[in-house]
Every structure is written in structure tokens, then in C-alpha cells.
Amino acid sequence: MPSWIRACATDDIEPDDMIRFDHGTQTFIIVRSEDDEFFAMDGICSHEKVHLCDGLVMDGAVECPKHNATFDYRTGEATRAPACVNLRIFPVKVEGADVFIEL
What is the pLDDT at residue 29? Predict the structure, then answer.
């Protein structure tokens, strides 16, 4: 059964940026949009298994630091080659100053 896991504080992420969040054996990224919304998705690029947290957030997408593949952080869709496999996204809620993801 899914449960809500605290990932970070809202102040841990600047607008239009992301952080890495590890839980068990899984790695995620938590993105804060320039509109102050929070999103969560798999934190490893589907192309060559690189940590996305070392990349960039821009124009509604996360760019992989290795080969510049991009993923829409709202949908997980791979939007630029060489990545062609979408990433999973996860529900997010903000309670007070904390960000939670549903796993």
C-alpha cells in the first residue's frame, strides 16, 4: 500500500531547481518549478543511468548532465534524445514547510 514519505523541506530547493532524494534503494529528484510547484520523478536517467540531480532544470524539463537528454518533470516524458524511455513520476504534497512524495 502506498504511503507518504517526507522528502525535504520547501526551503531546501530554490525555484527552478531540484534536489536528490534517496529512499531505500530508489533515487528520486524533487523539482521546484518557477511557479513554486513541487514535482517528483525517478532520479536516474533512463539512457545511461546517470544521476539527474547533477543536471539542470529549465523550461519545464530536467536535463541530464551526461548527454543532455531531457525529461518533462510534470509527466516524466523523455523529450530529447538520446533518452527514449520515460521516467516514473510520483504524487507530491506540501504540508506546512515539508514536501512529501507518495511511494
Answer: 98
∠ Cα 81 29 99 (to 5°)? 145
Q: Determine the length of the chain.
A: 103
Q: Which fold has domain 4-102?
A: Rieske Iron-sulfur Protein (2.102.10)
Residue 1 predicted with pLDDT over 90: no
The one-letter amino acid at 34:
E
Of 73, 6, 10, give the one whose Cα is nearest residue 36.
10
Q: What's the DSSP call for residue 82?
A: T
* pTM for the predicted model, two decimal places: 0.94
At residue 94, φ and ψ (nearest 5 deg) are -115, 125
d(Cα 37, Cα 86) in Å, to the nearest integer?
21
Start-to-end CA span in the chain (Å)? 8
The residue type of 79 is: T
Look-up of cell digits 529512499: 23
Q: What is the pLDDT of residue 33?
A: 97
